[in-house]
Write a structure and sequence with these properties.
about 375 residues; single chain; Rossmann fold
C-alpha cells in the first residue's frame, strides 16, 4: 500500500501509532498475587496486589450490593468499588509506570490513548471475576474513557495472540435470536439492524427456533465476521462444584411445550460449535433482562462463556458480566454499532465498546450497566475492519 498516495491510510497509521499498550498481569505466587506491567518501550514494573483490600468484608459487601437484584442504583457505591479496585491494582512501580505513561504521552494529546490490557490467570477465579470495569480514579471511570481503554486477555491460552482482526471488505454479521420469553428482542434487533444498515454492512437475522444445528448451519453458509447473540446466558455451579458458562438456545423438535424448548449449551460445547467457523472475528453476547429479575440465580450472565470463545479461536468477545437491564442493553447495542460502523473510530472494537460504556453511564448514571460489558481481546490492534 502506498501511504503517500492514500490519505485515509495515513490517518489510520497515525491513529494506531498513538495507542500505547500497557500490559498488566496478575499471577498467583506462594505469598499472594503479583502484578506486573510493561509498555513496549518500558522496563518491567512489579508490585504486590493489595489482596487484603479486595478480600476485606466491607469491600465484599459492596460487591454483593452491586450483584443484588433488582439492580443497584447508587453511583457513590460504584465509585467506592472502583477506587478500591484501582488502588489494589496500581501500586508501587506499577502505579508509577501508569502515571508516567498517562501524564507524559496521553494527557493533553488529542489522538493518544493508553490501552490497559488486563491479564488475569483464570485459576484465580475470585480475581478474574472481579468487576475491573468499575475502576475509578480522580472522578473518572477508566473503562468509559478513550484515553484509558480497558480490555481483558487470558494468560493461559495455549496459543498466541492474533496479529490483527482486519477482514477484507465490510464484515458480515449474523444476528442470532433464540425464541425466548422475557426479553425485548424485537427492539434490540431493530437497533442492531439499523446500525448495520446505516453503514451498509451485510447481515442476516436468525431467529425463532435457534437450535444448535440451525446456528451451525447458518454460520457455515456465509463467512460471517461478527456473531451477535441476543438472549439468556448463565454462569453457575454444576454438581461437582465447577463453574460453567452457558447460553440458552432452543431444543430440537416441533411443538415443544414451554419449559421443554430450552437447550442450554455449555462453554465446552459452544467452543466446539464455533471453533470450526474460522471467519468469526467478533462475538457479541448482549442480553436484555426484564420482569422478576430477583428470581434469577445469582451469577447469571455471560462471563463464563467468553473465555471458552477465546479458546475456540475467536479474536474478540464482548460479554456481560452481570444481567443487564433491557433499556441499558439497547443503549449499549445502539452506541456500540454506531461507533463501530461510523465516525473517526470506525472499525475499532475497543473504542466502540468504551464509547458504548460511556453512553450507558451518561444515560443511566446510577445503573451498573455501564460497567457490565467486558471486552476480551486477543488481537494486537483492536481493528476489525476499515470502512
Amino acid at each position: 500500500m502506498n501511504f503517500v498516495q492514500n490519505p485515509k491510510a495515513i490517518a489510520l497509521l497515525i491513529h494506531l501509532t498513538m495507542i500505547i499498550d500497557l500490559d498488566i498481569r496478575i499471577t498467583q505466587t506462594p505469598d499472594g498475587y503479583r502484578v506486573t506491567a510493561q509498555a513496549p518501550d518500558s522496563g518491567l514494573a512489579e508490585a504486590e496486589l493489595d489482596y487484603e483490600a479486595l478480600a476485606a468484608p466491607e469491600f465484599q459487601e459492596k460487591l454483593a450490593q452491586v450483584r443484588e437484584e433488582p439492580f443497584t442504583t447508587d453511583q457513590a457505591l460504584f465509585r467506592e468499588i472502583g477506587d478500591v479496585l484501582f488502588r489494589a491494582l496500581f501500586r508501587g512501580q506499577v502505579q508509577d509506570l501508569f502515571f508516567a505513561l498517562f501524564s507524559q504521552r496521553v494527557q493533553g494529546e488529542e489522538n493518544a490513548s493508553l490501552r490497559l490490557r488486563l491479564n488475569v490467570h483464570d485459576n484465580a477465579l475470585d480475581l478474574a471475576t472481579l468487576p475491573w470495569e468499575f475502576m475509578h480514579h480522580q472522578d473518572v471511570f477508566l473503562a468509559t474513557q478513550v484515553n484509558t481503554l480497558l480490555t481483558r486477555q487470558l494468560l493461559n491460552l495455549n496459543y498466541g495472540g492474533i496479529e490483527s482482526l482486519k477482514v477484507q471488505g465490510l464484515p458480515k454479521t449474523l444476528i442470532a435470536i433464540p425464541q425466548v420469553g422475557g426479553l425485548d428482542t424485537a427492539k434490540e434487533e431493530q437497533v442492531v439492524v439499523q446500525a448495520l444498515a446505516a453503514a451498509q454492512m451485510p447481515y442476516r437475522v436468525l431467529k425463532g427456533r435457534v437450535t444448535r444445528q440451525a446456528l451451525d448451519d447458518a454460520l457455515a453458509e456465509e463467512p460471517y465476521a461478527i456473531l451477535h447473540f441476543i438472549g439468556h446466558g448463565a454462569f453457575d455451579e454444576d454438581e461437582d462444584g465447577v463453574m460453567h458458562g452457558r447460553l440458552r438456545l432452543n431444543a430440537a423438535g416441533e411443538d415443544l411445550p414451554p419449559g421443554e424448548d430450552e437447550d442450554w449449551i455449555n462453554e465446552v460445547e459452544l467452543q466446539s460449535l464455533l471453533g470450526n467457523h474460522r471467519s468469526l472475528k467478533l462475538v457479541v453476547l448482549n442480553g436484555c433482562e426484564v420482569g422478576e429479575v430477583s428470581q434469577r440465580p445469582e451469577g447469571e450472565g455471560f462471563w463464563g462463556v467468553a473465555p471458552a470463545l477465546l479458546r475456540a479461536g475467536i479474536p474478540a468477545v464482548v460479554a456481560m458480566q452481570y444481567p443487564i437491564r433491557d433499556d441499558v442493553a439497547i443503549q449499549f447495542a445502539e452506541t456500540f454499532y454506531r461507533r463501530l460502523c461510523t465516525g473517526q473510530w470506525a472499525g475499532h472494537v475497543d473504542f466502540a465498546v468504551t464509547l458504548a460504556r460511556n453512553a450507558c453511564f451518561l444515560a443511566f448514571p446510577d445503573d451498573r450497566g455501564f460497567a457490565t460489558p467486558v471486552l476480551y481481546l486477543r488481537s494486537k490492534d483492536g481493528v476489525i475492519f476499515d470502512i
